[in-house]
TrEMBL record:
Residues 161-258 bind DNA. This is OmpR/PhoB-type domain-containing protein. Residues 161-258 form the OmpR/PhoB-type domain. CDD domains: trans_reg_C. Keywords: DNA-binding, Membrane, Transmembrane, Transmembrane helix.
Length: 261
């Protein structure tokens, strides 16, 4: 998919998700509170948040997403997760496939209590576009160029890639992953960027403004709790090492602490 196609897909998805948010609020007779800016948090993954607390009714959510995505001609394969703002635990989720008999939609009719929720959508299979034709037409040329480049620049072995030691983990920023006891833990792009900043400032407080500026500056859209969400995800991925802590310095920022063992 080209950059233009990616940008177009992202903008259409944001419009559709804003329509979903509006439908959910109107279903609860709320015509005044706001749907906050939609965030593209990872490849093909988006986040919908609200100004005020609301009740999540699975039936309404499924219908609103299905209708809005159909109007926007978005892919039929996606996964929806409803996260609790307080701890980012999944309160409700379902998976939709283009063949509805294969979709998994549990707990219909069982409403979640009023609260602060984050709705995330992950597209699991994007529709093929004209880029497929381009690949078919010019595949031979691309393959030849790839082969020439491979001859000129041999592929680096994994053990030659730059890595950093953080407690009991090896951190490979170029591969967006952590390794512990031969077990790999994948990191999203933003998790990787945050961990790099923390490593550069080990055992030192990094201000929230600096983290936001360096990780979100080029996107133009930032929801205040997005930083806290990604910090929470990093904590979970580092939780197997008790010597590592990401500490919240209230009103200032965060600090990655690695204790001597």
């Amino acid at each position: 998919m080209s950059c233009d196609d990616e940008n177009s897909f992202s903008e259409i998805t944001k419009i559709a998700l804003r329509d979903v948010g509006n439908s959910l609020l109107l279903s609860q007779s709320d015509s005044t509170s706001l749907v906050l800016p939609i965030t593209n948090i990872d490849t093909n993954k988006f986040e919908l948040t609200f100004q005020e607390e609301l009740r999540i009714v699975p039936d309404n959510l499924v219908d609103a997403v299905k209708n809005s995505f159909a109007k926007a001609n978005l892919p039929d394969n996606y996964r929806i997760e409803v996260l609790q703002c307080s701890d980012n635990e999944v309160a409700y989720s379902y998976e939709m496939k283009n063949e509805e008999q294969n979709s998994i939609i549990p707990c219909m009719g069982r409403a979640l209590p009023v609260g602060c929720y984050i709705i995330q959508v992950q597209f699991t299979e994007l529709k093929q576009t004209s880029w497929v034709m381009y690949v078919l037409l010019f595949g031979g040329v691309i393959l030849a160029l790839w082969f020439l480049m491979k001859l000129r620049k041999p592929k680096l072995k994994e053990d030659t890639l730059e890595s950093y030691i953080i407690g009991k983990y090896e951190f490979y920023p170029d591969q967006n992953k952590l390794v512990k006891s031969a077990s790999e833990i994948q990191l999203s792009k933003k998790e990787c960027e945050l961990l790099e900043i923390f490593y550069e400032n080990l055992n030192t407080v990094v201000k929230r403004d600096e983290l936001v500026k360096r990780v979100w500056e080029d996107q133009g859209v930032f929801v205040g709790r997005s930083l806290d969400t990604y910090i929470s995800k990093l904590r979970k991925k580092l939780q197997e090492d008790d010597s590592i802590k990401i500490t919240n310095i209230h009103g200032i920022g965060y600090k990655l602490e690695v204790l001597d063992t």
